[in-house]
Amino acid sequence: MRVVPRYLKQIFPRFFRAVFTLRDWVLTLPIRLKLSSLQRSDVGLSVSYLSPHFPEPPVQRSEFAHGGAVKLTYLAENFPHQFPSANLIYAVSSVAHPLQTEILQTAKRKGLKIVVNQNGVAFPAWDGANYENSNLSLKNLISFADFIIYQSQFCKESAERYISPPDVPSEIIYNPVDTRLFSPDAFFAKPETLTLLLGGNQYEKYRLELALQTLKALHRDVPNAKLIVTGNLWLPRDEAAAWTKQALHDMNLTDHVTFTGTYAQTDAPKLYSQAHLLLHTKYADPSPGLVLEAMALGMPVVHLDNGGVPELVGDAGIGVYVEHDWNKINLPNPQVMADAVMQVHARREEFSQRARQRAVDLFSLEKFIARHKEIFEKVLNS
Q1: Phi/psi at 281 (nearest 5 deg)?
Q2: Beta carbons of 72 and 206 less than 8 angstroms apart
Q3: If you write DSSP's letter for every residue of 260-293 in order, what string do you get?
Q4: Residue 192 contacts by C-beta under 8 Å, 6 or more apart in sequence?
Q5: 16-176+365-380 has CATH 2.60.40 classification
Q6: For the packed helices 68-78 and 365-380, what is the interaxial angle rounded to 10 degrees?
Q7: Closest Cα partner for 304 from 183, 206, 189?
Q8: How far apart are CA 164 and CA 158, in angstroms?
Q9: Are 244 and 228 spatial neighbours (Cβ–Cβ below 8 Å)?
């Protein structure tokens, strides 16, 4: 057996790191060249959005977008993306760009103001010992902020605990929902059988597992109850698919669960409306727009009672108690989740009206846009 010399073992990793660094530099060169033309505008309000497509505009509603990218779409409809001449950069902590630091440094150097919309952070319960490393980019981003918008009180507390925000003006502004697009007035026939929606992406195995266990427990009272699961599964996908297939078989749920994959915002109302209520199983979710979209459609929410979700749902659903712990994920008994589903379903009309009214009163897109305009003007005049 041939023995690889020690010096070669040391050289190979360095060589490949250099190759990949050079590759990334070449791939981002067109963006770097465009970035050099960025300049401060002295005319009115000119916003540039740090989306994954920068310096191009954020995606439109008809295109696939999720998480923080959705609010960039909404904002760009009202304050069009400007490049290369702008006076304000708007960045969302959950929306990444490979040249994020260079873009922000250039913007600061040229006198542009920076508003950061801060979502959640990494903490040990879900990211283990890697949480500090995961938070490095968030710490870096928020350090550039002239103004911070926190998506919930929980987001603010999390940021103060783990990423040390700068001492700049801030405000809590919950994510918006377009209550005209997400409206119960649009006729989408509900199925006769009680159907739950597990929305978003299922990047954590426990979310799907708890939902399936809840459905299984629910079958004691409603034998034909169904579940719709949206989005992508966790990585690696082949292992996730194999686990899911086996779990459905073992729980005898194969004919009761439908997987839809990803979807565009314009398709969401029809998709969500195929269910009676939203089952939200994510632990300590910071501020999910999905919950607001469901509520705007008049869908009650059964959720874990921690993170930012209780701030959103209020009395428009039932929060199932879990002990909040920054260091480990605590999940409720599936039977307790199923009992909450039954309670909500028994009073679904009452909960449905509360959900819709709460979405209109507190989270409308119109209010979100109006408040952002006031903040943008305040930041530019400071």
Answers
A1: -105, 10
A2: no
A3: EE---GGGHHHHHTTSSEEEE--TT----HHHHH
A4: none
A5: no
A6: 70
A7: 206
A8: 9
A9: no
The Cα–Cα gap between 292 and 299 comes to: 9
Mapped to the 3 state alphabet, what secondary structure does 36-89 carry?
A: CCCEECCCCCCEEECCCCCCCCCCCCCCCCCCHHHHHHHHHHHCCECCCEECEE
Class of domain 195-362: alpha beta
| pLDDT tens-place string over residues 219-232 | 999 999 999 999 99
User: Is the CB of residue 151 less than 8 Å from the CB of residue 92?
Assistant: no
Instruction: Provide the whole-model pTM.
Output: 0.89
Is residue 44 within 8 A of residue 376, CB to CB? The reply is no
Cis? peptide before 124, omega within 30° of 0: no
For the beta carbon of residue 64, count every other beta carbon within 10 angstroms: 11
Same topology, domains 16-176+365-380 and 195-362? Answer is yes
Question: For residue 189, with 0-12 CB atoms within 10 Å meaning exposed, 13-18 middle and 19 or more buried, which class applies?
Answer: exposed
The domain ranges of the chain are: 16-176+365-380, 195-362
Residue pLDDT tens, the chain, 382 long: 455 555 554 555 565 555 555 555 555 678 888 898 999 999 899 999 999 999 999 988 766 566 678 899 999 999 999 999 999 999 999 998 999 999 999 999 999 999 999 999 999 999 999 999 999 999 999 999 999 999 999 999 999 999 999 999 999 999 999 999 999 976 677 888 999 999 999 999 999 999 999 999 999 999 999 999 999 999 999 999 999 999 999 999 999 999 999 988 788 999 999 999 999 999 999 999 999 999 999 999 999 999 999 999 999 999 999 999 999 999 999 999 999 999 999 999 999 999 999 999 999 999 999 999 999 999 999 9
How many residues can be counted in the chain? 382
Helices (H), the chain: 6-35, 68-78, 100-109, 124-127, 131-134, 136-143, 153-162, 205-218, 237-250, 268-272, 289-296, 309-313, 334-346, 348-362, 365-380
Q: Which helix (H) or strand (E) holds 113?
A: strand 113-118
Q: How far apart are CA 44 and CA 86, in angstroms?
A: 9
Token pair for 130: 């890697």
